[in-house]
Amino acid sequence: MNQLNIGIILGSTREGRVSPQVGAWILEQAKKRGDANYEIVDIKDFKLPLLGESSDIGPATRWSQTLAKFDGFVFIVSEYNHSMSGALKNALDSAKAEWANKAAGIVSYGSVGGARAAEHVRLVLGELQIADVRTQVLFSGFTDFENWSVFKPAELHKKNLGVMLDQLLAWSKALKTLR
After folding, report:
1. 88 and 128 in contact (C-beta within 8 Å)?
2. b/e string for 50-64 if b means 16 or more Cβ within 10 A?
3. Element (H or E) spanning 150, and its range?
4. pLDDT for 62-118, tens place per residue?
């Protein structure tokens, strides 16, 4: 069976970040489904320079090649000052064609579940021709993390994640016919 490939993008590079914990949980839950190939993609591993500040195209080329193999994405979005991290915005801007006609789900976290950052991500995704699904998973820094540093998600998030992944796979499959 030819399964879809879904990249789970860790959207923060900050020291002490919790996105790897959130990503590991998402990956664990997603793999239990057995309905797609899921893989963590850590933007920190690519060491992308700020767009336009380096003539070294190696990191951006590697980034683009990695993105090209995916049919859809789960963006793990942390909220910084009511928006996404600068590293995620730079990563989104560092590719173009590799994003087009793919689908995305958003998992966010912060003081209000990262909702404001997720809304900013949605605006950018639209410009990149990425279809974002409606259902979103929002983790509260107050209730889903111990001391804002140890990820302990409430059980209720599993259902929402399942719905989001169902939508993501349906859209990813449909959009694959356009590529």
Report:
1. no
2. eeeeeeeeeebeebb
3. strand 150-151
4. 999 999 999 999 999 999 999 999 999 999 999 999 999 999 999 999 999 999 999
So what's the architecture of 5-176 in CATH?
A: 3-Layer(aba) Sandwich (3.40)
**pTM across the whole model:** 0.96
Helix (H, G, I), strand (E, B) or coil at 15: coil
Q: Which residue has the tokens 């970040």?
A: 17
* Cα–Cα separations (whole angstroms), residue 16 to 12, 49, 116, 122: 10, 20, 21, 25
- Which of these, 23, 29, 24, lies nearest to 161 by C-alpha position? 29
In 30-144, beta strands by DSSP E: 37-42, 72-78, 102-110, 130-140
Strand partners, 66: none
